[in-house]
Amino acid sequence: xxxxxxxxxxxxxxxxxxxFPQDAQASFSPEFIGYVNLGYIYTDSDERNNxxxxxxxxxATEGGFGHFRTGNEFNWYEIGLRDQxxxxxxxxxxxxxxxxxxxxxxxxxxxxxxxxxxTGMFDSMPEARLWAGRRxxxxxxxxxxxxxxxxxxxxxIGIDDLPLGDYTLDVAWAFPDGxxxxxxxxxxxxxxxxxxxxxxxxxxxxxxFLPELTFGxxxxxxxxxxxxxxxxxxxxxGLLLSLVNTxxxxxxxxxxxxxxxxxxxxxxxxxxxxxxxEPHYFGLEHKGTSISAFYQGVTWFNDKAxxxxxxxxEDLKLDNQYGKQWGAIALQPHYAWTDVHSTLFQFGxxxxxxxxxxxxNGTFKATIAQQMQPEVGVWSRPIFRVAASxxxxxxxWTDVDWNYGNPIPPxxxxxxxxxxxxFGFTMEAWW
Length: 431
Description:
This protein is mostly beta strands. The chain is about 0% helix and about 50% strand.
């Protein structure tokens, strides 16, 4: 999870009902919603965290994306309210509010979601959902690596489930934060604030014998075309094209995501370890292209044994040679001894190779975990887990550090390898 630095007022949720006629308001009985991941992880390494013995950041590959999460998770809370604030039998309106924080530091409490959404607003399209605000709407994720993909977590206004022939359309106009202040031609600097268009066509069948697909187009730009940075080849626009196939069958499911990005949206719209604070590169020296492919799924062999897998690949080529090529694989066999007790293994390897020179960083992680859940299932929660991992890492280059808009380029290092034992416990729940 990431920490978002946005202030919040509870007022929109508490007073939203006053916007609608009293005789059509739903009774104010908000649903308490939330998520918690509590974890304390330790290591025998004298090098990590100044030799304190505790792991305070995910064990991950420098220059890579995400981290192998089993036995490698940390404290995070999300707590909020959700309620139907209007219902006249035709139109329904829902409001939601969610706070999140890093439990190591309560000062980082921040808005995760704040939105109002309505269905039944259009006579000809009663299922269309009009919404505005910020949502936690995760549809694509490499779960084993805690890496969200094609993720619009920006403040936006949009309409979901617009009927368009045999398929449906989600459209949104998003308002990403500007990242860095850039110098202007006439002196001074400005923090450029872009717009992002998000279009997703769902349930598309190109032929009767082909599976249903989702196609996506994202475009980021600024209406302030006259604000041009001096002496910087910054990305002032970007395109991201996406294709998704989700397949369900009698023994499991799998999902494939293919993406092509340019400039400010090359390698963008991710949320996880290794991604930038705002998941775009508008205003940074980020001219280039990316090709990405992600594949994951689960296969049930019987009611006790299953195998989960994740594959990821991305080739980011930038004009300034700050790009990289990243690949990852994770396998997670699981066996349930009883309805509540199970054993889990995770084997993961990922590596990131610098574009500028022949250097590769990598992580191998093998984990065994004992866990307890209310029932057998991938998503059964709460889950209580103790885990131990063997980790090998190589560190041969440093990833680019944007350093408030003035990038510190990748640097080649003398190859170094480390190994360690990582162990601890985690508890995860949502409601």
